[in-house]
Amino acid sequence: KAGVTQTPRYLIKTRGQQVTLSCSPISGHRSVSWYQQTPGQGLQFLFEYFSETQRNKGNFPGRFSGRQFSNSRSEMNVSTLELGDSALYLCASSRQVDDLTDTQYFGPGTRLTVL
Amino acid sequence: QKEVEQNSGPLSVPEGAIASLNCTYSDRGSQSFFWYRQYSGKSPELIMSIYSNGDKEDGRFTAQLNKASQYVSLLIRDSQPSDSATYLCAVKLQAGTALIFGKGTTLSVSS
Questions:
Q1: What is the pLDDT confidence band of residue B103, given thresholds at 50, 70 and 90?
Q2: Which residues of A touch B49 (CB under 8 A)?
Q3: pLDDT at residue B9 above 90?
Q4: Do A33 and B99 meet the contact criterion of CB atoms below 8 Å apart?
């Protein structure tokens, strides 16, 4: 079974631009979560989607947004990029929501560099 | 604010020794706990999950959970140099599947 895929793997942008990252979950997984990982802050939760609806949202500004499509694929968008947005963006998928034993599996990540 | 705390390390152990990694969490209602391993430049991979108080063993790995003390630990027996990585403790939000992560403990196993 194929794992979580993320595209692109690497991105270089300049301040003020916007960026869209894509995530395809494991086949049969309906929940997708996004995380930002930086050396200083570690892995931080951005948002979670299930059935095209945002279920949870982390403490990030409105410049960070996301969506999920009917085939469970998800995208996240960051507008008006800042230098501090440089990070590894990780997508994780799981089978379903509201199951204590449900487990998240991570994609390889997208490395975003903002210049 | 839900928090997960880990010692950042580095934790250094010789090959063959037992490595002990610890984690505390703030949300007393949390019920699902996970340990992920992350090699440098790679994404996190799941090692263990635990939901009930007590010990859960899987090969060389043992996860321990004490909900009364809000404490989770991971023991790695017969540590190998290939175990050298950052170990992330994660707690599931009570609703949904999203996880709150600690900042990770870096383990170094010397041969």
A1: very high
A2: 101, 103
A3: no
A4: yes
